[in-house]
Structures are given as structure tokens and as C-alpha cells.
Amino acid sequence: MYAFEYHRPTSVKEAAGLAGKAEDIKFLAGGHTLLPTMKLRLAGPANLIDLGQIAELRGIERSGDTVTIGAMMKHAEVANSAEVKEAIPALAEMAELIGDPHVRNRGTIGGSIANNDPSADYPAACLALNATIITNQRKIAADDFFQGIFTTALEEGEIITQVSFKVPSQAAYTKFRNPASRYALVGVFVAKHASGVRVAVTGAGSSGVFRVTDMERALSGNFAAEALEGVTVAESEMNSDIHADAAYRAHLVGVMARRAVQAAVARG
Amino acid sequence: MTTVSLTVNGQSVTADVDPRTLLVQFLRDNLRLTGTHVGCDTSQCGACVVHLNGQAVKSCTTLAVQANASVITTIEGISQGGELHPMQAAFREHHGLQCGYCTPGMIMSAIDIVNRKGNTLDEQTIRAELEGNLCRCTGYHNIVKAVAAGAQGMAQTPLQQAAE
């Protein structure tokens, strides 16, 4: 790991102030992507701003048809939250599928979303649950936030403070894990809202997380796995690597989407 | 250098560290608590698992400075008065180890599983919960038996849980 200057602010304002002053900064959330990347010297920020001591970045709150989660909430906290389990059980189940128990005790929702790993789970949840990403500067719709692999709408020095999810009437997440890394080879989050159905896919797309509008249209008419028969995603838009080629991923998107709908319907 | 103050196995510790010092390096190199192992060094294998404020974490993927003001328990901190912790005793009884390299992490994870899931654990639960701990000897069969027995043992020794 390259040397860096370490900062431990206790408020978002102080963190943003540090980010504005210091050169070459990175924010440290749970550190379960950033620290391995720094150990490999693929990242070497001069200044590391630890968000771990900022109380205002924590908490989970339900209000009407939204659940709002503080950016520094850990995956295990979301998975075990009574509010999340009651309002959006699919979201709690998704958090329980991230990494392993130790990773879930450190990794955070804000870190996952800011990083936008093409195989991360939270970006799919954000798109399917019509989330709003709240930063210290503005509110960004999930549809506008994820802009490609490891790319988001965040500006330099901008800090995610909360993520607000719309409570669906029915939802489920299904994940086909890479057997070695446990990341999503394909993960599909399906959610039925009053405004229509949203289907979001992670792990598969060559440009990162994406919505499948053909599936959304089919399911908005009939929220049942049968409605997805014959609805496919384009192989040309799928990622292809040593773990799975594009054709396999495209096939898996269909399979996992049908299973997600079945699970959502079964939950009622 | 950054000052870090924390409690390790019940002892208060304050030190000036290079901020890039990993928690596992701090435990092993500064405090000479070498029971916590570095296996893969890439947050996969779990040989480095310690408890941070009562929760199992991978100390190879945590900076020592992130553990400031926290309470850390390592494998050296779980026995009491010369008596093995029930989970350690169960690993010995059931031969839950082969080379032993993964054992400290396995035991720290196992205690965490019991803390979260209770004292009666079926095989499926144990195997799923041990997802973040790898045994390169592939000695999982006896490890799973040891965790189940250790979980029962912890129910009979309530004092041991207070060691956290």
C-alpha cells in the first residue's frame, strides 16, 4: 500500500471541507473494495478521508412509502433491520447475499453504490426500487446515477449521505453467484410498484447495471413468470469473460428474472 | 503517524502507527499477538478474523486506525483462567483442524455464529455461515462437528460469552 494522510472527520460538512482542501482524496467507507485495491497499488490516494465516525451517515427510517438508509449502514445491519425486513424483505435478503458474514459486518451501502462495481448487488436494488441517492449536495434518481462500470453521477468530493428506496407491493432478488468469488454472475431484482414493474440486472451487462424494459412491459401487464416467456436480452450487450460468455449470461438473465418473479409472487 | 487507542483482549493500547498499517499487522507486529493469521491477505480466507466491537471482521481488510476507540478480541483473548473457551475445547475434542493455520479464524467466526444464531446449529447453517473461512486442508467435516459441539458447550458456560 502506498503511504497516505489519514483524516477522521466527525461530520459530513467537515468531510466535504477536507475533500475540498486536500489533493488526490478518496473517501473510505467500509473499505472492502478500496483497501484491497490500495493493497494492490491500483489505487494510491494521497489523502484518505474515513467516513466511519460520522453519526449522521447512519440510521434506517421508514416514512410512508419510502425506506431511507444511511450511507454508512453495513450490509449486516440492513439485512437484520426490522424496518427493512418488514417494508422491503427483498432488500434485506439481498443484503444477506453480499460476500460473507465478515464482509457484511464492514461493507456499506454507500460504498457499494459509489463504487458501482458491475457485479455489485445494491445498484440493481436501487434501480428496481426506484431509489433516490441523496448526497451532501443534491438528490439523484437511481436511473441517472449509475453511468457505466465503476462510473456514477457523483462529482469529485461529493458524499452520498442516504439512499431512499420506494416500498414496492411485491419484490424479490435472485442471484446466480460466481462459485469462487461469490459475486453475481447474474443478479436480477424485480419489483412491482403502483407505477409499474421494474426489472434491474447486475453482473451481466457490459456497461454495468441496467433495466430490462421489455421485461418490465411484459410484467406490468401480467406479474407472473409466464409473462417473461420469449422475452430476452441482447447477447451483444452482455459481458463476456472467463467465468461466463455473453450467450450464457443472456440466458441466465431470463432464468433469474423468472425465478425472481416466482419468488416475489410466492411471498405475496 | 496517527495515534490509535483501542482495547485489545481487555487491555487498553495506545500507539502511533503509519495509517496504512492493517489491523492484522498491528495485532501481530506491534502487539505480538500472532495467533491471528494472514492467509490470503485478500479478504477471502478468514484466517485473520477477529472480533471488532463483538462482530467478526477480517483484520487484513481493516486499517488499525479504523479500529480506533473500539474493542478487539483475538484468539488469545477468549480463554479464561487457563481454561480453553468451549469452542476451542470442541475443536480439540472433535479434531476440527489439520494443519491448524485456519483454526484461529474458524474459532473466532464460530463464536460469532453462535452469538448471532444461538446454541443449536444444524450442519447446513454452519456450512453456510462459514462461507468466509477457508480450510486448505479441506477439513470441513470435523470443523462443522466442532462448531456444533462448541455452540452447545457455550450454552453451558455462560461466563465465556461475557468474555466479549
Automatic annotation (TrEMBL), chain A:
Q: Does the keyword Flavoprotein apply?
A: yes
What the entry lists under Pfam families is as follows: FAD_binding_5
Q: Which UniProt keywords apply?
A: FAD, Flavoprotein, Oxidoreductase
Query: Which InterPro entries does the record match to this protein?
Result: CO_DH_flav_C, CO_DH_flav_C_dom_sf, Diverse_Substr_Oxidored, FAD-bd_PCMH, FAD-bd_PCMH-like_sf, FAD-bd_PCMH_sub1, FAD-bd_PCMH_sub2, Mopterin_DH_FAD-bd
Q: Which SMART domains does this one have?
A: CO_deh_flav_C (SM01092)
Domain FAD-binding PCMH-type: start-end pairs: 1-170
Q: Does the keyword DNA-binding apply?
A: no
**PANTHER family from the UniProt entry:** XANTHINE DEHYDROGENASE SUBUNIT C-RELATED
Q: What is this protein called?
A: Xanthine dehydrogenase family protein subunit M
- The organism is Microvirga terrestris
From TrEMBL, chain B:
Entries under InterPro entries matching the protein: 2Fe-2S-bd (IPR002888), 2Fe-2S-bd_dom_sf (IPR036884), 2Fe-2S_ferredoxin-like_sf (IPR036010), 2Fe-2S_ferredoxin-type (IPR001041), Beta-grasp_dom_sf (IPR012675), Diverse_Oxidoreductases (IPR051452)
Under CDD domains, the record lists: fer2
Task: Say which domain of life the source belongs to.
Answer: Bacteria
Keyword annotations for this protein?
A: 2Fe-2S, Iron, Iron-sulfur, Metal-binding, Oxidoreductase
Q: Which SUPFAM superfamilies match?
A: 2Fe-2S ferredoxin-like, CO dehydrogenase ISP C-domain like
| The keyword tRNA processing is assigned to this record | no
Please name one Pfam family that this protein belongs to.
Fer2_2
Its name, as the record gives it, is (2Fe-2S)-binding protein
Coiled-coil portions: none
Q: Which organism is it from?
A: Microvirga terrestris
Q: Where is the 2Fe-2S ferredoxin-type domain?
A: 2-78
Q: Does the keyword Iron apply?
A: yes
